[in-house]
Amino acid sequence: MSLNKDRRIGRHAILLLLSDHPAEQLKKLEQSKWKGCIGKVGSMDAHKVVAAIETAAKKNGIVRSDVYREMHALYHAIIEALHGITRGQVQIGSILRTVGLSFAVLRGNPYDNELEGDWVAVALYGTIGAPVKGSEHETIGLGINHI
């Protein structure tokens, strides 16, 4: 089992998220038989962030809602990414914090061996802070899980 250096799914998810030309970036990834999407969400509720990312991933065919392992893998990648943006405690509104985030979801096989199967990565970037304009700072998070 060898992780292909050029197919690091987390790196590609972050590059897609931060790209000035995400449509072009996504096209290149799709040529490698990967699936991805980007979106935005802002909320004081963590469950709304999770729901927005899950909805985008389902609508774009990245995961199938009728296949439990795919939804489960996506959920854990989202929670891992949320841990990054919230510094380890997935709490937002309950402690008077709000987020404004862009996200990228990417699915593909980062290994040389096709039998290793697909993985999913969720990258989040944006702001977090008190629900007062100007009281936020940048944040980033990444979650990766096998499907």
UniProtKB/TrEMBL annotation:
Gene Ontology molecular function, alphabetical: mRNA binding
InterPro entries, per database record: Regulatory_HutP, Regulatory_HutP_bacillales, Regulatory_HutP_sf
At the top level, the lineage of the source is Bacteria
Alphabetically ordered keywords of this record: Activator, Histidine metabolism, RNA-binding, Transcription, Transcription regulation
GO annotation terms (biological process): L-histidine metabolic process; positive regulation of gene expression
Subunit relationships: Homohexamer.
Family membership, please give it: Belongs to the HutP family.
Q: Which HAMAP family match?
A: HutP
Main function:
Antiterminator that binds to cis-acting regulatory sequences on the mRNA in the presence of histidine, thereby suppressing transcription termination and activating the hut operon for histidine utilization.
Identification of the protein by name = Hut operon positive regulatory protein
Q: Look up and give the organism this protein is from.
A: Siminovitchia fortis
